Fold this sequence. Notes:
By secondary structure, the protein is of the alpha/beta class. It has 2 domains: 3-209, Rossmann fold (3-Layer(aba) Sandwich); 214-375, Rossmann fold. It has 16 helices and 14 strands. The protein has helices spanning 10-18, 26-36, 51-65, 84-98, 117-121, 133-141, 158-161, 167-176, 192-201, 214-218, 232-242, 255-267, 281-292, 303-306, 326-333, 354-364; strands at 41-44, 77-80, 107-110, 128-131, 152-156, 182-187, 206-209, 220-226, 248-251, 272-275, 298-301, 316-319, 343-349, 369-372. It has a 7-stranded parallel beta sheet with strand order 3-4-2-5-6-1-7. Strands 10-11-9-12-13-8-14 form a 7-stranded parallel beta sheet. Helix 2 (26-36) packs parallel to helix 3 and helix 3 crosses helix 4. It starts with 9 loop residues before the first helix and ends in a 6-residue tail after the last strand.
Amino acid sequence: MNFKKLDIHPALLESISINSFKKPTAIQVQAIPIIQQGRDILGIAKTGSGKTASFAIPILDKLLSNPSSERGRAPKVLVLVPTRELAVQVSQVFHDLSKNLPTQIKSLVVYGGVSINPQMKGMMGVEILIATPGRLLDLHRSNAVHLSKVEILVLDEADKMLNIGFQEEMESVLALLPRKRQNALFSATLSEQLSSINKVLLNEPALVKIENKEDDIELINLFGYFVSEERKGPFLRYLIKEEKMSQVLVFTSSGNKADKVASKLNKNGIQALSIHGKKSQSARMNALDRFKSGNLLVLVATDLISRGIDINDLPYVINYELPRSPKDFVHRVGRTGRANSSGKAISFVTRDETHHLKVILKKIKRYMDIIDSEEINF
């Protein structure tokens, strides 16, 4: 199938072509018509499957077909995301698709960690607002944005948006929105929590769940090493040098550990930066830009930041520490093996984590060869 069969505005079709979207992905084929029809949707598809374009394209199509003459501070579309990095990524997709359209459709991205003043000034005339919940509430309290005209609400990475950490902010945001609206929730995984919450958020939603094809799963090669805690640092450095790795994304369980791992790598001649929630926005964006451009060998990140890291052809992901849940494991290793590229995901496992790893692998229905690092001389 091609995009022409999806009944998309001709000008948007041309923009899609300019941006090198060759043919719609599975989630786009199913989600685009549903959103065009004004129906609620719960879309489940793996990371790297084109979820952002699956809601950006029909939203732009609807706005093109029904242009608005109003230019106030009340956006028609609200896209909520959990992290600044993901906010920037989603905003870029909207920007790229709309910059060649005959009708100007203004979008704006807002998030914390930077000055609020430019965001307040830029709000006038915005039709599509991409935001993190905390900064959105700050702007509302400052009377810089009004949410009474929102016609479409999108929750990207909905599983993260609806967990306990965001619960209070999400309840505050939802209370400000009109009850009559179209809702679109997208996630890489369908958790029990997400299943129950969609009954509240969604009105008879269409469920679109894209199952992973066997070949897609096999694009990510899983490997494991039994490594004691004290040998993890030296073994990480050994692997990077021995396998002549390029663009290595390393995951740790905390920002403090990420800083320590990056510091040790640098002291041993391996260029690395850490990225986590306690870093300033400029430091986070600088690290991410350098890593994406290939000017940084190793990026050490935490789980929350992983949601905003989208790099085609990323060759290596290393779990320096195992995540708490199978869902987080999927998000981590899903940073590689994207857009039909192969990738390698390596996990460091201490002996007392063996049972935890078995639970993860059973849940995701994968097998992993595990080598004892004690047998490797380095």
